Amino acid sequence: MRRQSGYVLLTAAAGVVVILGVLGLCLDLGRMYVAANELQTYSDAASIAACHRLDGTSEGIAAATLAGTQNVNKWSFGSSKVANAAVDFALNSAGPWVTSPVPASGYRFARVRAQSNVRLYFVPIFAGVGTGRAVGASAVAGQGVVNSIGDGAFPFSPDAHVPNPIPVDPTGNFGFIKGGIYTLRWDAVGKGRPDALTTSSGHKVVGCQDDMTTPGFIPGALNNGQRGYLDLEVGGGGGGAAFIRDAILGSVDVDPINVGDLIDNATGNKQTEVDALLERVAQDTNQTTATYYTAKAAGVGLEPPGRTYYAADPPGAPASPPRGNGRRLVVVPVNNPTTDTVLGFAYFFLPPIPCPEGNPQPCCAEYVGPSTHLPGQGGPVVGGGSLGGYRIRLFQ
To answer: How far apart are CA 366 and CA 382, in angstroms?
Structure first.
């Protein structure tokens, strides 16, 4: 009996050691699992934020890198900032990946890799295991091509300045100059005026500044050269005043618009359009900034010297002039004026008064660039690729 005494105590002690070891292993592995999920959340959010800054310029790459490394998400149960995050970019979701692409045009994908060292408390009792273990995560986000838009489409369609932007304008800007003022709605009462443009059918029309001064540009011909409101009513029919107003304000269901579709311009210069455009501007928290860019670019595919601070600017950017809520930035289908078909989608910026006094008059807007994503998807930014539109999403 004396030889058997203490057996239970020894067995219990050994069992406690094993149980505590397993418990400690579970705690350390659990902390590593939580940390991996936190870093994955960081990488997902940071890669999407980085893609919001990609606009085909070196400045956009710099802004994307900053957004990818300074995301607000934290790790260690939300108590620590992620200090080790790397951002690189690619032309497609499969790579190859580069940190500072030159030139930056066409780079629409961002990869964020985040890593942190998890402190281990129990596992190090096993031989060869250190007191910390590196845990990492990676995510790839990109600007995926959108070939169709529905609700949120602005019911005007500017005429492209080249009939086929891919070979003629490899920058994907439809022949437009960023910062240029182009026509949303043409003035049909300009027939016979010496300063008017001539349509392909020989009619004179009056348009906005950069349509009127571009050599060789001929707008499309429809209804005696007048291109007005784009009919988006489900089933067609032109739409009454109430529908036109709601379409401009983006508060009505509309027919989807696809690349290659034949555009359907409604006839007539309606005062409803002028009033609704002014109402759209009034809905913006910044109604006074005259232009999106500080000056027009020197040519097609080039970047303007700067731009005003608006809704798409990163946190901490100067607040003067006031930053808007994006209501003055609209996504429009751009058409081939020769065939009346949709080529792609672009962002335009509504000036404080889109249509000059008097009716009918041309209604104008400033070209910002190919659209990256539709309104309501996180704020408007210029696309890094060609022709628009794009929607930012996670690819990996």
So the answer is: 13
Q: What is the mean pLDDT of residues 42-60?
A: 83
CA distance 98 to 234: 45
Give the count of beta carbons closer than 10 Å to the beta carbon of residue 262.
9
Q: Is there a contact between 384 and 108 (Cβ–Cβ < 8 Å)?
A: yes
The reported pTM is 0.68
Confirm if 259 and 288 have CB atoms less than 8 A apart: no
Residue 167's contacts (CB-CB under 8 Å, 6 or more residues apart) are none
Closest CA to 214 of 316, 296, 131: 296
In this structure, is the dihedral angle defined by the CA atoms of residues 234, 236, 239 and 245, taken in order, positive or negative?
positive
Give mean pLDDT, residues 317-344.
76
- Residue 33 main-chain phi, psi, to 5 deg: -65, -45
Residue (of 384, 312, 346) closest to 58 by Cα position:
384
Instruction: Please choose, from the candidates 396, 374, 376, 372, the residue with its C-alpha nearest in 3D space to the C-alpha of residue 384.
Output: 372
Q: 55 and 383 in contact (C-beta within 8 Å)?
A: yes
Buried residues in 101-130 as b, exposed as e (16+ CB within 10 A): beebbbbbbbbbbbbbebebebbbeeeeee
Q: Are 121 and 25 in contact (CB under 8 A)?
A: no
Q: Per the structure block, which two tokens stand in for 305?
A: 């010297």
Interstrand relation of 341-349 and 329-336 (parallel, antiparallel or unpaired):
antiparallel
pLDDT of residue 224: 46
Please give the Cα distance from 69 to 87 (Å, whole number): 7
Compute the distance between CA of residue 270 and CA of residue 221 in angstroms, rounded to an integer.
19
**Where are the alpha helices (H) located in the chain, listed in sequence order?**
7-51, 58-69, 165-168, 209-212, 241-249, 271-282
Helix (H, G, I), strand (E, B) or coil at 12: helix
pLDDT (average), residues 136-158: 81
Residue in the structure block whose two tokens are 């005696």: 224
